[in-house]
Design goal:
Layout lengths: L5 E3 L5 E3 L3 E2 L5 H14 L3 E3 L7 H10 L8 E6 L9 H15 L4 E6 L9 H14 L2 E7 L3 H10 L6 E5 L7 H10 L2 E5 L12 H10 L3 H12 L2 E2 L6 H8 L8 H8 L17
Parallel strand pairs: 3-4, 4-5, 5-6, 6-7, 7-8, 8-9, 9-10
Antiparallel strand pairs: 1-2
Helix pairs in contact: 1-2, 1-9, 2-3, 3-4, 7-8
Length: 279
Amino acid sequence: MSQVPNITLNNGVAMPQLGFGVWQVPDHEAAKAVGTALEAGYRSIDTAAIYGNEKGTGKGLASSGIDREELFVTTKLWNASSRTWTRDSVLREFDGSLDKLGLDYIDLYLIHWPRPMTDDYLTIWRAFEEIAKSGRAKAVGVSNFQPAHLRRLLDETSVVPAVNQIELHPRLQQSAPRAFHAEHGIATEAWSPLGQGKGLLDVPTIIAIAQKHGRTPAQVVLRWHVQTGNIVIPKSVTPSRIKENFDIFGFELDGEDVAALTALDSGDRLGPDPDEYDF
């Protein structure tokens, strides 16, 4: 039995608050990494078309022996500028992801980036609404959408995104998007929750809190995410770290810890600006 709490999405679907991400995991390593994560207790796996590892991820899921109903699988549409996005092209991409994963349905399907300069995310989203209605995706959402992008979806379409997956960590706490999400029933999911190994886990404040609780800096940051209410998807291919990142439910940060972590917010991004990123 998994000890991970669920977040109930706005359509009633239950999503584990802690999942395992496979960004930058090569396809030939994905099956092993996913298998290790599932053995550690994870039941939510996050991939994407652009990661190039949906096949390996699917092999890891299939070989686990875990009932499909116990798993929560997320993948994402890579809405690149090289394509003219129509209903039919979106549906073809979705079918391709299903085929690579070897699944009959996906639990959560996301638009990877808004790319507002091309103004096609409304067309894409309407196809997502159709996918959700068909039941082949239990929930649909977005990734890297700013409040202005979400507002257009709310004003001009009929399905509220279940999730917005955004860059979020103690140095980029995203208070404005999180407030918008909370107001409109959109769950916040954090990518790069540990800061991509670019110094966040070496911050003295985080190290001190980790020592106080007899935990690692990574466990402290992941615990902060969970207590903040974020869905979080750390990634690793190292078995010991995969297990370490899962072991965050045996302690709790106190108010002083949370205040110290909140004070680390500098607004610095590691990834692209969603208003400007095109590909």
